[in-house]
Fold this protein.
Amino acid sequence: MLTISVIIPTYHRPKELERCLEALKKQNRQADEVLVTVRDSDTETWTFLASFDPQPLPLHIIKVSVSVPGVVAAMNMGMDAASGDIIAFTDDDATPHTDWLERMEAHFLSDSNIGGVGGRDWVYHGTQLEKGEREVVGQVQWFGRVIGEHHLGVGEAREVDVLKGVNMSFRRSAIAQMHFDTRMRGTGAQVHFELAFSLALKRAGWKLIYDPKVAVNHYPAQRFDEDQRNRFNDIALLNAVHNETLVLLENLPSTRRTAFVIWATFVGTRDAPGLLQWLRFLPKEGTLAGQKLVASLRGRWQAWETWQQSK
């Protein structure tokens, strides 16, 4: 049997954190260690934890300085403190299914070449479940387009390129000496941090497994930064595009990297448009389409600068 550490970064969401911890109490296979990272300025969460009964959870609280913003710093501190053979991550606004750790562990025991395991996050907006099914999830296409869709995955367990932060775990021996990339921009969510981590593991030769049955319920809660999920913010988009672009520039071989730069500039996606996507959505979105294009291209260029400086 392997030992399992579960890490939960939290920030100003005590009700959601309580729901998450209560779900962990009900696991068929109990965690050997649960670490919650809390900002020193987060008085709401500290007040909640002071009165919370953790039993039977082996709960440990890690204080994170507010002077170092972003989820990456919190997750790195949790990872440094964790002692398990498997290090699992979920969000404070998620509730793992009762067999979450049990199914996760089974994959790691089945193959010593598996470096990471993740699964589906069933997304609820209030009480409304987001519906849909996708066979292709967690893939990076040859020209660099990233397909997520982890929240809609169906089918059997399979190898993927990318796991999702709300539901991912790693073999400790696979991630020895590794940390989440501190160059990821953003004061809170730091979108695409898991892309950087996943591709680094793949490059090192480890398998990443996505199994829809390794599941959590996900109730996307308020974020306390510039990234407000479904509301456009040019800084949030610029940061997300910068992070994604930087990771792909570093991890794609030269021919695929060239294809990615061309595709990202001239095509792009709805959320991070290039010139063709801007033209496509211009009649419907008007000036908003232009704002997205400018933020997207700036993010691409700034990522190129970051990449060159890092080299």
Remarks:
- The chain has two domains: 4-218, 234-310.
